[in-house]
Specification:
The chain is α+β, with helices and mostly antiparallel strands and 179 residues long. Helix content is 21%, strand content 47%. The strands form three sheets. A four-stranded mixed β-sheet has the order 7-4-9-8, sandwiched between helices. A three-stranded antiparallel β-sheet has the order 1-2-3, with no helix packed on it. Helix 2 packs across helix 3.
Length: 179
C-alpha cells in the first residue's frame, strides 16, 4: 500500500515576517478529498549543548513571550542563509555563552511541530570549550547559567526545563556521556 501523500493544489501567502512566514495551502489527499493546511515557514535552527571538562553544562535563561516566562535553555539560534550548520552552532555558542568549542558532534535533528511548521532543529554536543565571546543579538536579554549535567537532567525530569530542544539535547548529551 503506498504511503499517504498530499498534493498542493494552490498556495496563498498570508504573512511574511522577520522570523517566520505563514501560508495557507489547499491540498489534495491521497483519497481524492481536499483540505486546507496552514504552514508556518521557519528557517533551520541549531541548538548546542556545551559541556565543559568538569561535566557542567552551560545554559541560557531568557524570557520567552510566547511561553510567558523565562526559560532555561541550551544556546540556539537560526542558521543564516548559506551558513554551514557547524559554523552556525559555533556562532550561536559564542554569542550566547562567550565560549567556542574545539569539538562539535551532532546528536540529533528533529521537526519542532511538523503538523504545521517547517522548523527543523539540528542539535550538537560542544566540548573542548574555550573563551571566545561574540556580541549577541541586540533583541535578546540572556543570562548564562552553569550547572552539572546531572542537575540539568534532574530539572528536565522535574519539568523545570521544558523547552523541547533543550530537553532533547540535555538527555542525549547525558546518554552520550554515560557511555
Amino acid at each position: 500500500m503506498p504511503e499517504p501523500t498530499e498534493l498542493v493544489i494552490s498556495s496563498r501567502r498570508i504573512h511574511d515576517g522577520r522570523i517566520c512566514n505563514l501560508r495557507e495551502d489547499t491540498v489534495e489527499l491521497s483519497n481524492g478529498r481536499t483540505a486546507l493546511r496552514e504552514i508556518v515557514e521557519h528557517d533551520p535552527v541549531v541548538a548546542v549543548v556545551p559541556l565543559d571538562e568538569n561535566g557542567d553544562v552551560i545554559l541560557v535563561r531568557q524570557y520567552r513571550l510566547a511561553a510567558e516566562e523565562a526559560l532555561l535553555e541550551v544556546p540556539a539560534g537560526l542558521v543564516d542563509p548559506g551558513e554551514a550548520l557547524e559554523a552556525a552552532a559555533q556562532r550561536e555558542l559564542r554569542e550566547e555563552t562567550g565560549y567556542r568549542a574545539a569539538n562539535l558532534r551532532r546528536l540529533a535533528g528533529f521537526f519542532v511541530s511538523p503538523g504545521f511548521c517547517t522548523e527543523f532543529i539540528h542539535v550538537y554536543l560542544a566540548t573542548g570549550l574555550s573563551e571566545s565571546p561574540l556580541d549577541g543579538d541586540e533583541d535578546e536579554d540572556i543570562r548564562v547559567e552553569r550547572m552539572p549535567l546531572v542537575e540539568a537532567v534532574r530539572l528536565v525530569e522535574e519539568g523545570a526545563i521544558k523547552d523541547a530542544k533543550s530537553v532533547v539535547g540535555i538527555l542525549m548529551a547525558s546518554d552520550r556521556s554515560s557511555r
